[in-house]
Structure formats: structure tokens, C-alpha cells
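Exam review. A common question shows you a sequence with its C-alpha cells and asks you to describe the fold in words. Practice with the pair below. Do the first one on your own.
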Amino acid sequence: MPASDRIRPPWWLKPMNKVFIQMSRLGLRFGGEGRSC
């Protein structure tokens, strides 16, 4: 793996970040009281 690939994020990082934020919101909403992160 070249060093430039480490610095530059992959193309799927942005959409996955959005999905992760939505999933974390759902997790906090539904399973927030059950377990703490």
C-alpha cells in the first residue's frame, strides 16, 4: 500500500460516513438505554 493511499481517503468513505452517522443515531435512539457506548 503506497503512502499516498493512506493520506487520501477512499471514495466510499464519505457515503459510509453518512450511513454510519444515521446508524449511530438509530442506535442511540433505540438501544441507547440498553447499552452505553
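Now try the second one, then compare your answer with the model answer below.
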Amino acid sequence: MLDLFDTNMQYFLIGDFNSRVGVTADFVEPDDNLFDILKNNNCQLRESIHVVDILRRLNIPLSRCSEDKGRPNSLGLKLINFCKDNGIFILNGRVDKDANCGKKTCKNASLIDYAIASPELFSYISEFEVFDFNPLFSDVHCRLHVLFDNCSNDVYNLNCNKQTQISTVRWVPGKVNQYIECVENYNEVIADLINEVERLDVKKPDFQTDLDNIVDKINSVFIDSAADTFGQTRKRCSNANTVEQPWFNSACNAKRKSFHAAKKKYNCIKNKEMHLCLRQASADYKKELDKAYKDYEFRTENIIRETTSNDPNKLETFK
């Protein structure tokens, strides 16, 4: 499985993992004595182990409950190792309404659908529940419900501008029958979509485009039905998402990540070696920024020269 660990990011994963884990621990209990005995000063490893303290401060139990009493399968063991390696935790059987049960999610026989999050996100999770199976949404899987609350403005304002944003109210379990009726009102649209599916030809070059269009139309049916049933809310976003400078490229981004990683290591272990690593990472980052900016200036100057020679009138619209 993919190694997600990045000291500057928090993660939230949700879906069908095909992994049976039972109540196997998804964390490593920290023991600093082992680091001293093994003379291991790996800062990232220390941090990934001590993240359990975040759950303790939030009064979230480290042990999980699970209705699935089967033995962990091979994918389950991989998922457990994945959580341990990256310092992330399973919500199922640990949070809110699922805290004391760990409800089964597939055919009422196994728990293979999970929500997994970085410990820093647990304080924002106000609701977590495994809903009863509904064939309207899946063939065999139960829906997982997660609600994030009290997030900072930086979280809410991603990709926002000063205009009002309209969003559909979250799912209301008591209105499931009204929602089904709204979906059924789109019978003609659904019938047309069925005909479009039957006319699909995998041999045509535009097959994928046609399929994507059908999926978009199906999504619209569900979203529009939700808006009609549950209503909509209006939110105002005032802070625009930060835009990178045009000369800031992927190489600059990589050096910035390396610098922040070195800085975090130094804050954890303040010795001469870590200080030298931090200084080197800082110098490399500045060097890459200077190089990217000079390259951008050089390209811009060439464009201006060519435009001046070939079509001076275009300089008025040059940015």
C-alpha cells in the first residue's frame, strides 16, 4: 500500500478497503526506552508512534470494538501496518455512535468499509455512524456517515471567493421516503439514461466520454433530489485560496517540503547533526527559489523581446 506519511499533511480516507481487521491494534504503544536501547534517533518514527497521545488527550479510546469476529485477512493486516506506519487511526468502533459496537458494513457479515483519519482531525469529527443497509445506494455495503464540525476558516475557505456558495443540506435519515419519491420523479430521465447505457459501444473512441457524461447525469439526479428533499444552505466565503507565484514550480515545492521536514526534525532532536541538516535544507530551498525565479525572468524577457520584434501591439495585453 502507498506510504502517505508527510509531516505537513493530515489525511482522511473513507471507503471499501476489503480489509477485515477485527480489533487488531492500529497503533504502536510508545516506548522511548527501546529507542535508547537501539540507539535509534529516527524523528519521524518517534512522531508516528507518539500520535496516540493525541487520542488520549481527546478521551478517545485506543482499543476498538467490532461486530466482525472473524480473523484479519491479508488485506486487513496490510491496512493495520499502513495505519501504524503513517500514524493514522480507524474511526470504526472508536468514535461517536459506532464507538461501542463497530457495526458490520457488508452483507451483515463483515466489517470491510472504514473511515481512517490523522489524529489531528479527530477533534473536528462531531458525528460518525454506520447507517443500516439501503439498496438504493449500494449492492451490499452500508453507508458511512461522517460530519466535520468547528473547522477553521482555512478549511472552510479552500477554493472559496467572496460570492455566496450554495450547498445541499446533509442527509436526514427521517426523510428517506421523501428522498426516494424525489428520485422516482426522475423516471423519464432514468429511462433515457438506461437507453444511453444500452447504446454504449466500448469499441467507439468516444466511449469513455459518453460513459462519463452518463455518470454525471446520474449524479445530478441524486444531487437534485437531495436538494429538493433536504433543502440548501448558503455560505459566504471571504478569503480566497492562496495562489502560488507563477515561477514557483514542482522543484521548489519539493525543496520546501524537504525544508519543513528538516525543520520539524530539528525541533524534535536539537543536536548538531540536525542543525546542519536544517541549514543545508534551507540553503537548497533558497537556491531552488532563486533558480526558478531567474529562469522565469529569462523566459519572460525572451517573450517580450520576440513580441517587440514581431508584433509590438501585443505588448498592451502582455501579462
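Model answer, second protein: Residues 152-162 have pLDDT under 50 and may be disordered. The beta strands are 12-16, 89-90, 113-117, 125-130, 144-148, 164-168, 232-236. Full marks require stating both points clearly.
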